[in-house]
């Protein structure tokens, strides 16, 4: 059986997308008969995700470890499991910080958003909106998947149900899913506005694994914690509020009209792009989003809901999971690792 080691973290400075996207990807590898292992720094958010998802084969990297110590541990794990592939997504650090990583496994892959490749990688995935064509020049032997279409998405998104999705002409059901941590308690900020509208809205809140639930004093609101599958929530919602991380791409892929807030600067271009395409409405960066901005944005989306339905229904966006597996498996075949 081939083995793959995934390396990623969840932390308030980077959110939960790094770790969650590789967990999503691992489900495909596991279904194809691969053994899946994880090396994760023991941040609190990481531990909550691993616990809530009952993730197996996890090796904890002490949060205080230096990069050199981490590299040593990763190499030892790869030797112990006879790893065929090492796949890392540590976007809080430039790849140059891992220059001493070498080649701990025969196949090397990474998610990288800064366009600068260092180290010995065979596959690079960059789903930034502005992944430039000239990025990674000088690495013609590396397979590069670029653009938002190559976002890793959860396998629970059902293409048939999305393609046949029907919408209500009146937006009454509001989903609030502000990412795995919601460091700035945007959830509470949004609920404060909705509670003052005195409208007959049905509101559902997804509390991510890193979110310390603070916004509980709102009547008539359904709170869901530690949910492993949000697809039914996406289909339930007429409108969703989301941060600009991985969840925003899941909402767009599920054809759910969304109001987006950039919790961190690296999310701004994604939010702006989705809004430009008519798939979402961008409220702004979190420190600029107050009650008036939320109220104005919600009113605009409700008034123009049919336009969002039309543009989203014409969208065909399924992520890169299959492509990534096929590329890695082809390397495995060509290098006679079977």
Short characterization:
The chain folds into two domains: 3-152 and 319-334, Rossmann fold, CATH 3.40.50; 159-313, Rossmann fold, CATH 3.40.50. The strands form two sheets. It has a seven-stranded parallel β-sheet, sandwiched between helices. A six-stranded parallel β-sheet has the order 10-9-8-11-12-13, sandwiched between helices. The chain contains eleven helices and 13 strands.
List the helices and strands and how they pair.
Blueprint: E1 3-8, H1 17-31, E2 35-41, H2 44-52, E3 58-61, H3 67-81, E4 85-89, E5 107-111, E6 123-126, E7 143-146, H4 159-163, E8 173-177, H5 186-197, E9 202-207, E10 221-225, H6 231-236, E11 239-243, H7 246-253, E12 258-262, H8 268-276, E13 280-285, H9 291-303, H10 305-313, H11 321-334
Parallel strand pairs: 1-2, 1-4, 2-3, 4-5, 5-6, 6-7, 8-9, 8-11, 9-10, 11-12, 12-13
Helix pairs in contact: 5-9
Q: Explain this structure to me?
A:
The protein is α/β, with parallel strands linked by helices and 338 residues long. It has two domains: 3-152 and 319-334, Rossmann fold (3-Layer(aba) Sandwich); 159-313, Rossmann fold, CATH 3.40.50.2000. The chain contains eleven helices and 13 strands. The chain has helices spanning 17-31, 44-52, 67-81, 159-163, 186-197, 231-236, 246-253, 268-276, 291-303, 305-313, 321-334; strands at 3-8, 35-41, 58-61, 85-89, 107-111, 123-126, 143-146, 173-177, 202-207, 221-225, 239-243, 258-262, 280-285. The strands form two sheets. The chain has a seven-stranded parallel sheet, sandwiched between helices. Strands 10-9-8-11-12-13 form a six-stranded parallel sheet, sandwiched between helices. Helix 5 (186-197) crosses helix 9. It is globular, with a radius of gyration of 20 Å. The model has no long low-confidence stretch (mean pLDDT 90).
